Amino acid sequence: QVQLVESGGGVVQPGRSLRLSCAASGFTFSSFTIHWVRQAPGKGLEWVALMSYDGSNKYNADSVKGRFTISRDNSKNTLYLQMNSLRAEDTAVYYCARDYGDTQVILDYWGQGTLVTVSS
Amino acid sequence: SSELTQDPAVSVALGQTVRIKCQGDSLRTYYASWFQQKPGQAPVLVIYGEDSRPSGIPDRFSGSRSGNTVSLTITGAQAEDEADYYCNAWDSSGNHVLFGGGTKLTVL
To answer: In A9, A46, B21, B48, which residue has its Cα 20 to 30 A from B28's Cα atom?
Structure first.
């Protein structure tokens, strides 16, 4: 069965860095675009970034541009999110999600999320 | 515009039909998806494409599109349908992803 498991969250001070991982299993990881989506406490969903199946295309939300970097290692079936210069407003549950779509974004499987808290 | 707009809250009587709407310019070009999220849980895809349901999603959930508006319809709402619902689609550039602000559905 398809599984996505996020890890790497925790409490970090403003201005510091953190790297999240998303370990995939149960499907051919190297064939799918994967996204990061976050949700601040009590707030809605916010798209963060995506990387295409082969890593050739990646896009970030404007709110994280220049600070967050998405990457993947298809040999390890793992997606990463390197988060630098963290701010209080980056506090959120971070989800990774598989994109089943081609011309449409279809996030058909999600992990359970990992909580990032940015606080001094 | 680069946003998707949803009503913050909607209520429906048990067993009745409810429509949740999502508006945005990019919806004239791209299909939307709909997600259900219950407290403390990850979002679950309930509708994608023109009107497709993933395996395991009850057929009381359906989708439609007209112009710049997409709708999620729940026909015969059940108590377990009480949740937050989000729409999602590409933005007009086709390389950023949008989420609506979410609609909290209350089943009375």
So the answer is: A46
The predicted pLDDT at position B93 comes to 87
**pLDDT of res. B94:** 85
Q: Is A54 exposed, middle or buried (0-12, 13-18, 19+ CB in 10 A)?
A: exposed
- In the β-sheet with A18-25, what is the strand arrangement from edge to edge? A3-7, A18-25, A78-83, A68-73
Biggest CA pair distance of chain A: 42
Report yes or no: B49 at the A interface, CB cutoff 8 Å: yes
Give chain A's mean pLDDT.
97
Contact state of B89 with A104 under an 8 Å Cβ cutoff: yes
Q: What is the mean pLDDT of residues B47-70?
A: 95
Task: State how far the Cα of B107 lies from the Cα of B10, in Å rounded to an integer.
Answer: 9
Chain A residues with beta carbon closer than 8 angstroms to that of B88: 45, 47, 105, 107
